[in-house]
Structure formats: structure tokens, C-alpha cells
């Protein structure tokens, strides 16, 4: 793959392609590796997708969690398909919602042939919840790149940050230096995020 200067990468053309309602649904057009953005409802998945591609409002950011029910697919240049995965663990979800989420997301994560990597988003302010840990266990079942990404870094003061990163790393059993802190508001972590995705698909 052609390596581009960091300043050019954000300018790769990106577009919304379609929403998958089934885990085995094909994406029309030339095949590309898929990178999923997953995490609990409201953690900042759509905002992180926008940060990654350098667009303000490509993926829809929502104030009400749990709005996304399908796998929203975006093309990022000819690098990859970015897949915005519906969030888990929203409080108002009923039994039927949970069951359809599991059917869609578990099958997608476990069986999708073109899935190359998962950006697993966790809110820097909180320790991973039981839902987070269950999702982590699911990811661990498949040999696939997983990068934990801490979101909303701007909401934590500098003095508390190391402590939060260490605490989350402790729960996940991941070294703190392997946790990427990001902020969709200050654009912290944008370059490192792009580098990680490019490394996943290389
Ligand atoms: P669902 O699709 O509903 O599961 O949510 P999501 O994970 O896609 O989160 P989304 O990007 O819609 O963001 C949820 C809320 O968090 C919005 O109000 C965002 O403005 C806010 N948010 C997202 N990222 C950041 C961030 O880095 N900093 C701050 N302060 N707020 C953020
Ligand atoms: Mg979203």
C-alpha cells in the first residue's frame, strides 16, 4: 500500500455507503478490509469515526443512546470500510432489542470474513462495565487485531488521567501504554488512530 504523509491521510475521500441489517450482507463495490468501531452506547463511536476521517459530521452523533440499530458502513478512501457498530448496554433496551443486537453484532464480529480489526471504545471516565468485559471476552475468541481506545479524554483533567488509564488497563490486563487516549473535541489521538487503522489493514 502507498504510504501517505500524515497531513494527507485525513483528506482521503470518505462516504457513507449503506447500513447492514444482517451480519453476512455484502458491501457493494470493490472488496476492502473492514475495521469496526464498537463499544457501549454513547461511548463516542460515531464521533471517533468522524475524528478518524477528519470530517465533522459524516457519521451521525446522537444525544440519545441506542439509536443505531444497524451496522453503518463508510468507505475511507481505498484503505478500508469503517463499520459503526450499534452500541451495547443501553439502559432502555428490552429483551427483543438485546437479542437482535446479539444476533447482528456477535455474528458480525465472530464470522465476518473481511473484518481485520476492531477499535474497542471505552469511556476514560469509567472502569469497564460487565457489558464491556463480556464484549472483550467475545473479541478474544477470534484472532483479530483489537485496539482499546479511550474516548472523551477532554473530560478528565491532566492530573487524573494517568490514574484512569492505569485503572482501565488493570481491569483489561492491558499495559497503559497500549491504551490510546482520544478526544473528538480536541482531536487528541487523531494521528495515532489513523496509524493504527493503517497498520491493521497493511
Ligand atoms: P450511539 O451510536 O448512540 O451508541 O453513540 P456513539 O457511541 O456513536 O456516541 P456519539 O459519537 O454519538 O457520542 C455520544 C455523545 O458523546 C455525544 O453527545 C457526543 O457529543 C459526546 N462525545 C463523543 N465524543 C466525545 C469526546 O471526545 N469528548 C466529549 N466531551 N464528548 C464526546
Ligand atoms: Mg453512534
Can you describe what's shown?
The protein is α/β, with parallel strands linked by helices and 202 residues long. It has one domain: P-loop containing nucleotide triphosphate hydrolases (Rossmann fold). The protein has six helices and seven strands. It has helices at residues 6-9, 45-53, 95-111, 130-140, 158-172, 190-201, and strands at residues 14-20, 34-39, 71-76, 80-84, 115-123, 145-151, 180-181. It has a seven-stranded mixed beta sheet with strand order 1-3-4-2-5-6-7, with helices on both faces. The longest helix is centred in the middle third of the chain and has 17 residues, at 95-111. The radius of gyration is 16 Å and the shape is globular. The chain starts with 5 loop residues before the first helix and ends with a helix. It binds guanosine-5'-triphosphate and magnesium ion. Guanosine-5'-triphosphate is lined by residues 41-47, 61-63, 65-68, 87, 151-152, 154-155, 183-185.
Secondary-structure element pattern, one letter each: HEEHEEHEHEHEH
Count of DSSP helices? 6
Our count of domains comes out at 1
What share of residues are in beta strands? 15-25%
If you average the pLDDT, what whole number results?
Answer: 90
CATH topology: Rossmann fold
Structural class: alpha/beta
Number of DSSP-assigned strands:
7
- The CATH C-level name is Alpha Beta
Radius of gyration: 16 Å
Helix percent band: 25-40%
In the sheet with the most strands, the strands line up as 1-3-4-2-5-6-7
CATH architecture tag: 3-Layer(aba) Sandwich
Shape: globular
Given as residue ranges, the uncertain stretches (5+ residues, pLDDT < 50) are none
State the major sheet: 7 strands, mixed
- Amino-to-carboxy terminus distance: 7 Å
What compounds sit in this structure? guanosine-5'-triphosphate, magnesium ion
Spell out the CATH superfamily: P-loop containing nucleotide triphosphate hydrolases
Amino acid at each position: 500500500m502507498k504510504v501517505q504523509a500524515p497531513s494527507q491521510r485525513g483528506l482521503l475521500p470518505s462516504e457513507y455507503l449503506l447500513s447492514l441489517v444482517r451480519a453476512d450482507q455484502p458491501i457493494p463495490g470493490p472488496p476492502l478490509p473492514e475495521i469496526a468501531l464498537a463499544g457501549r452506547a454513547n461511548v463516542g463511536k460515531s464521533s471517533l469515526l468522524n475524528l478518524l476521517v477528519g470530517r465533522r459530521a459524516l457519521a451521525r452523533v446522537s444525544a440519545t443512546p441506542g439509536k443505531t440499530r444497524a451496522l453503518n458502513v463508510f468507505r475511507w478512501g481505498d484503505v478500508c470500510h469503517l463499520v459503526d457498530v450499534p452500541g451495547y448496554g443501553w439502559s432502555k433496551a428490552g429483551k427483543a432489542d438485546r437479542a437482535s443486537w446479539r444476533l447482528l453484532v456477535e455474528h458480525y464480529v465472530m464470522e465476518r470474513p473481511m473484518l481485520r480489526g476492531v477499535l474497542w471504545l471505552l469511556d476514560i471516565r469509567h472502569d469497564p462495565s460487565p457489558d464491556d468485559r463480556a464484549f472483550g471476552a467475545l473479541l478474544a475468541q477470534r484472532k483479530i487485531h483489537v485496539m482499546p481506545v479511550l474516548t472523551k479524554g477532554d473530560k478528565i483533567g491532566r492530573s487524573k488521567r494517568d490514574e484512569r488509564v492505569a485503572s482501565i488497563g488493570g481491569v483489561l490486563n492491558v499495559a497503559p501504554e497500549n491504551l490510546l487516549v482520544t478526544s473528538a473535541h480536541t482531536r487528541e489521538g487523531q494521528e495515532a488512530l489513523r496509524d493504527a487503522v493503517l497498520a491493521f489493514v497493511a
